[in-house]
């Protein structure tokens, strides 16, 4: 259709077609009743832009008002986002790592993991292990490549927010995220507090006030309490929780019923959920390894958002307009 028209004029043609189509639909009641007006215009402009190869245009009016979808994806960190426990990994630097890990496990069994690790971390540093050496150990932790790619794609989608809720600490988590190039995709980290004092790294509890009645979480962090505060922030269209451990249980059962719980198969969270059939909860989807976790995230978060975005012209908020074709995002700037 545009053969023979200079490429510089293609944008003008696309815009004229979109305005013309909108006018035709607006002044033709039968057609208007038959067609979804926004979809008709969107499809026409999309096809024209695809034909011309234009990926950026400078203007479009603000008549499209569909609200962006809001998806919250929550990751536990140890053994969920990464394949190891970061606290235990760092204790591998101890001169007697078996004893250090045994003491930490005993503390965990008594719901005092945070205090136990704070004590082991202090011993470790008194042995002469510096923060630089601890950082080097953390940088060794690699996130699975397929999961990393999925996080890149999810993080680039409008309306998807990725957060971490973990019983590790914010310094360990930030260090691992940065070294894996994931820090810019994670919008919030809630974890125990790491502070440097006198050249030593100290870990302190995240929660310092008592948990609400009914919580069975350790005093330092109640994931259910954090999840409820996140759910109160906005109206999320979908919430997905990824976890593995017993500390994830209260976070997971707070996922709204239309959400998903991605539980590491046959690990404590999964077993607890299986034993709690009487609790009304979101659908539980087990995953065996990080590649399966990545595929579940793609299927349950990425694909629904892409399908929605493909149908909507969204000029709300960011005033950026996107559409997606075969999984590839193309941004149209306003
Ligand atoms: Mg975990």
From TrEMBL:
SUPFAM superfamilies: HAD-like. Keywords: Hydrolase, Magnesium, Metal-binding, Signal. One of its GO terms (molecular function) is metal ion binding. The keyword Metal-binding applies. The keyword Signal applies. Its cofactor is Mg(2+). Gene3D superfamilies: HAD superfamily/HAD-like (3.40.50.1000). Residues 1-26 form the signal peptide. It holds the Pfam family Put_Phosphatase. InterPro entries: HAD-like_sf, HAD_hydro_PyrdxlP_Pase-like, HAD_sf, Pase_PHOSPHO-typ. This is Uncharacterized protein. It comes from Guillardia theta (strain CCMP2712) (Cryptophyte).
């Amino acid at each position: 259709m545009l053969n023979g028209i200079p490429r510089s004029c293609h944008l003008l043609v696309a815009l004229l077609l979109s305005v013309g189509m909108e006018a035709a639909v607006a002044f033709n009641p039968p057609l208007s009743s038959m067609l979804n007006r926004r979809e008709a215009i969107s499809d026409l402009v999309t096809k024209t832009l695809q034909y011309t190869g234009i990926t950026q245009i400078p203007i479009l009016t603000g008549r499209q008002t569909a609200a962006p979808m809001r998806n919250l994806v929550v990751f536990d960190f140890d053994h969920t986002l990464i394949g190891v426990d970061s606290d235990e990994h760092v204790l591998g630097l101890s001169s007697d790592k078996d004893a250090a890990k045994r003491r930490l496990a005993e503390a965990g069994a008594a719901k005092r993991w945070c205090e136990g690790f704070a004590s082991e971390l202090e011993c470790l540093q008194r042995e002469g292990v510096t923060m630089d050496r601890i950082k080097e150990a953390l940088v060794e932790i690699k996130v699975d490549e397929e999961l990393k790619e999925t996080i890149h794609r999810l993080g680039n989608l409008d309306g998807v927010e990725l957060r971490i809720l973990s019983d590790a600490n914010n310094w360990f988590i930030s260090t691992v995220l940065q070294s894996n190039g994931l820090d810019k995709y994670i919008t919030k980290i809630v974890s125990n507090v790491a502070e440097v004092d006198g050249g030593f790294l100290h870990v302190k509890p995240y929660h310092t006030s008592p948990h609400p009645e009914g919580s069975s979480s350790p005093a330092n962090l109640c994931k259910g309490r954090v999840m409820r505060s996140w759910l109160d922030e906005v109206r999320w269209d979908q919430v997905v929780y990824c976890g593995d451990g017993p500390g994830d249980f209260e976070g997971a059962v707070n996922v709204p019923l239309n959400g998903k719980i991605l539980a590491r198969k046959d690990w404590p969270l999964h077993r607890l959920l299986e034993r709690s059939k009487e609790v009304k909860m979101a659908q539980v989807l087990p995953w065996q390894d990080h590649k399966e976790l990545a595929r579940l995230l793609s299927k349950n978060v990425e694909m629904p958002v892409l399908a929605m975005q493909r149908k909507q012209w969204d000029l709300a908020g960011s005033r950026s307009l996107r559409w997606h074709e075969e999984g590839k995002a193309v941004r149209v700037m306003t």
